[in-house]
Design brief:
This protein has helices spanning about 15-25, 35-40, 45-50, 100-115, 130-140, 165-170, 170-180; strands at about 5-10, 55-65, 65-75, 85-95, 120-130, 145, 155-160. With about 190 residues, the chain is an alpha+beta fold. It has a seven-stranded mixed β-sheet, with helices on both faces. Helix 4 (about 100-115) links the parallel strand 4 (about 85-95) and strand 5 (about 120-130).
Length: about 190
């Protein structure tokens, strides 16, 4: 197995990120929520902004030596009602890195990062139903198919994040206080 390393992408990674993302869109256009023409026309400065880590988004990259071979983002909603959910998006592994552990390492890193965020309980992602390699990877990493009607050609998957330490230390009064603290929005 090759030696891969994972880290959050930075603005310095913009050219490599753009090239890998365009390769992914070219190979699997239905998987991405954009087109090659639209993504290719974005200024590098705008793409660099996407790579800035903040409390709601981070994009990880897998490197083989100094070459970016895989990427995926983790995005949380700032809305309090859904603050316990995050989405994995923009997942792509270069063809020559597939089947060598890069995708699994990437997902394990994202799941580990998500577990360190106390508010998060669920990870979600969408996968093309004909992308058997990706679907198999997600299942091996613990994702399950979400209930409900999937969008055309896409499967929705989810992962309940392990929280044994929180579950063991949270008392019924803590849960009551959280529920009791919710406020009804007046119209």
């Amino acid at each position: 197995m090759l030696a891969f390393h994972v880290r959050p992408l930075t603005a310095d990674d913009t050219p490599a990120y753009r090239a890998l993302r365009l390769a992914g869109i070219s190979e699997l256009p239905a998987t991405f929520c954009t087109t090659y023409a639209l993504e290719g026309s974005l200024p590098l400065a705008q793409i660099s902004q996407r790579l800035l880590v903040n409390r709601y988004q981070i994009i990880f990259g897998v490197f083989e030596n100094d070459r970016l071979v895989a990427m995926a983002g983790l995005r949380r909603e700032p809305i309090a009602v859904v603050h316990d959910k995050a989405s994995i998006w923009g997942v792509y592994v270069a063809p020559d890195a597939r089947g060598k552990g890069a995708g699994r390492l990437l997902l394990q890193t994202i799941i580990g990062h998500a577990c360190a965020i106390p508010e998060l309980a669920w990870l979600r992602l969408a996968v093309a139903q004909d992308n058997h390699a990706a679907l198999s990877l997600y299942l091996r990493c613990g994702f399950t198919l979400a209930e409900g009607a999937p969008p055309l050609g896409m499967l929705q998957m989810q992962l309940l994040l392990p929280r044994p330490a929180i579950a063991e230390t949270m008392s019924k009064s803590d849960v009551f206080m959280k529920i009791n603290g919710l406020r009804k929005v007046e119209k």
